[in-house]
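Input.
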Amino acid sequence: MSIEHKSASFEPASMSGPLQQGALAGLRVLDLSRVLAGPWAGQLLADLGADVIKVERPGTGDDTRTWGPPWLADADGDATGESAYYMSANRNKRSVTVDLSQPEGQALVKQLASKADVLIENFKVGGLSQYGLDYASLDEVNPRLVYCSITGFGQTGPYAPRAGYDFLMQGMGGLMSLTGRADGADGEGPLKVGVALTDIMTGLYATVAIQAALAHRERTCKGQHIDLALLDVQIACLANQAASYLIGGVVPKRMGNAHPSIVPYQDFPTADGYMIIAVGNDGQFAKCCAALGRPEWSSDERFARNPQRVKHRDELIALICGVTAGRTTGEWISIMEAAGVPCGPVNTIDKVFEDAHVQSREMRIEMAHPLSENVSLVANPIRLSESPVQYRHAPPMLGAHTEEVLDAWLDMSGAEIEALRHNRII
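Output.
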């Protein structure tokens, strides 16, 4: 797709190899969002080459800047006040501080929006109208603008005015009814997922929606408003579990780590912990039985076919547990992998980054940071052969690029910028 604006030139963070142009180079994004869902979308667009400007409150910035510990440490090992949470979602952006409570600040953001291709915001419904920064107002100054609103419950409906949080959506959207030990089991009860998964999925949906809107703009020269709700996304991501209810009339329940439609597909105890066995078909089950030293199970009429295994789940799981407890996780994984049975350990996060395959995929990156020699971050998983992800900027310090952006985007003079700073607009 053609993009109207050219990105301003800026120095990349230190990295090996020449800096290549990203797939979205030339795309200008104004990111007014905070916390995770919106910033995650902004980071993904930035990783793909877009010039993403993070607009923050002077003095405080994004809420997550204070969500610590842990904090980034400086060269002496002392905490810098830059939180790990903030670092996780704001790479490759440039930070500009603007006071939206003042008319001059509102006018400044409107000017930036007039030069942008995309705007991302997660204010409460109607929250930006008081500043003249809602979609209808900005559509008048920039009809090509793709305006992405992320809220808890969407722009319409009886819950629209409510604030929305990931934990709340995991509960209201059904995910917690599926997560946790089954009723009657030790440790029973609903659980949230260990990361803010609804926020992350919403950020991914937002990125897809933004690119779809840009493709539509390519054909029509017209931007549009994207209404994205965390609750909608959570429901959409129920996938086969929602289909079980809508098509089969079955209300899924918590099953711990077991799968409702496939057996064996869960964790099993070993001599030193747990391992996962993920058998997806009858052929794999036969291999699994042979690896366990119980080849006769694969011809047992109770277990030979997956529907029978699901029906006789409790009997089969008890039998497998009785065998797996006799060897260590490492021993079983070697045996299962040699037999072609999908399996793996339940890794802690440190073990994830110690894994040889993860290291070979370079899923940990190091970026230079003004307050520390390097900051360690998780790499973007997208691998593009012709326009690979580039790591240009570490997550920016608050307001670090205000002058730079106002000069590049709005061609402001030093005197104009200094006047804004003197009046505490920026």
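The mean pLDDT is 94.
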